[in-house]
Amino acid sequence: MPLALMISCLLASFSTLAVCDDSLETCGAGCTLSAGSRGLLQIEKTMGNQKETTTSTTWASPYYMMTCPGTQAMTTQSMTEADYDNITAEIQALYNSLPSTCTPTECPQADWAGCVLRMAGHDFMDYKDGQGGADGCVDLTDADNLGLAECLFTGEFGISIADAYQHFCQSVSLADFLVIAAEAVMSASRQHVTLEDSSRSTIDFKSSFKFGRTTAKTCEWAHGRLPNPENSCSAVQETFVESMGLTWGQAAALMGVHTLGRAQIANSGYNGWWSSALMSRKFNNDYYVSILAKGWGPEVAVAGNAQKNQWKRVDAGANETGLGKEMMLNTDLCLAFTMDDAGTVELDAATAASAECKCTWGVPVAVSTATTKYEEGRFCGSTNIPGSSNFRQQRAICCGEEFDGRSDAAIDCGLPIDPKGPAYESIKKFANNEDAWLRVFKAAWRTATGNGFSLRRLRS
């Protein structure tokens, strides 16, 4: 029986919501499933019936959804460098089997890599007071986790990491496997950068990887722990700084995973690429360059949902037709910018316009190295960058040609010449120096994926 059907049948046996029809393919669980109901919709319906259930056979967590041909290891007892390499090779083979082309509306490798990283992030972001962390458990019925089933087990673009996990599940815990899978896609995505420019640094996760994470079968307490982007930097502080123990610089570094993939309405309610679509499959520092070298305006009620508000690119280089829709969340831009000059009001797309915060941008001198090294000399989409004596024209290319007057300073979110975001200095450093970001990122990644566990180094 195909894996996808097997999983759907397994789920069907847990729920009264399974579709039954004598004319359809039989699951063997007392019902049959139509071809259209074997995918994510069927799984979501089944999960919806499990939301309040925490018994060991029906709780909707990755442990139960990703099947194992034998007894699944709860804690990895031993792991060598060769074991790590074998897992990485299988994950990267799946990644490389996807089309490498990107268009303004689609980039399969970026979407798949972004999903795997999102799973790892949602896993470790629930850590608080010694509970949770990278334990391989998320509540798949939580709306914040929509879309994770595809890369985990149902198959995004027909491919899931469950295909690889079956080969290691009897000796490697799912918790360890998910961390390695995330590192594998970051490494593969980094190769796109170094192949184009051999002067860019490679990235090595294996030398600092430690194993021994124990998989949690259920984690009902994790429901609602993920940071809400609408809450701006208050959410970043609560989750990354206070609960996970990161500095603001490390929190900003970890957010750099947004350079891969995009936000999709079906999953998060938000919409767009953090980098341009063509850049979204490359693990580089473009996320930071984009924050400081582009202009951003508030977009309220994304897709008509008043609970979802974001920032969209509004500068001279904005080109949804050619580059795709570029966006940032409050939790991205707030790291560098605030709504007011004093730095006391957090950035908030929902209320920005009423607060006369219509454009978030910084002066070009702050990212002069970045624009030269990484943006082919472009700032806010223009290679004709006005000097410091022409501040109003700088605003015009970042916020719109109509904002070139002296009185237009009122539209600025804070002071472009002196941003007050809690991680502004780190964002500026990472934008201008990719190696600085990679160093801090690796340290932050080790902390985030190791919280709550006593881990051991790989054997050579």
From TrEMBL:
One of its GO terms (molecular function) is peroxidase activity. The keyword Protein transport does not apply. It comes from the Eukaryota. Residues 1-20 form the signal peptide. Gene3D superfamilies: 1.10.520.10, Peroxidase, domain 2 (1.10.420.10). The keyword Oxidoreductase applies. Keywords: Heme, Iron, Metal-binding, Oxidoreductase, Peroxidase, Signal. Residues 172-264 form the Plant heme peroxidase family profile domain. Belongs to the peroxidase family. This is Ascorbate peroxidase (HvAPX1). It comes from Durusdinium trenchii.
